[in-house]
């Protein structure tokens, strides 16, 4: 008995590697930049509901000197975080921070 392959949406509840969302790709960041530069929604957003969803996701971001930044949620004393648009570069930075900031290995003792 052959089972048909499951649709991609069947796995929407499964966690993503490193917490990356489906929309977290370079195209999404470019759409955000264009939205902040021109004030125009991406061409693929034709319904009001889609535009509202996009605006809600974009509300904490801002553009400064052609660089996207993420504003802090509640504490205005915290610094904004720079958005690293390229996933491969983001992975490199995460690995470097992990390995160079006191990583002792799996059998470390005090």
UniProtKB/TrEMBL annotation:
<protein>
    <submittedName>
        <fullName>Uncharacterized protein</fullName>
    </submittedName>
</protein>
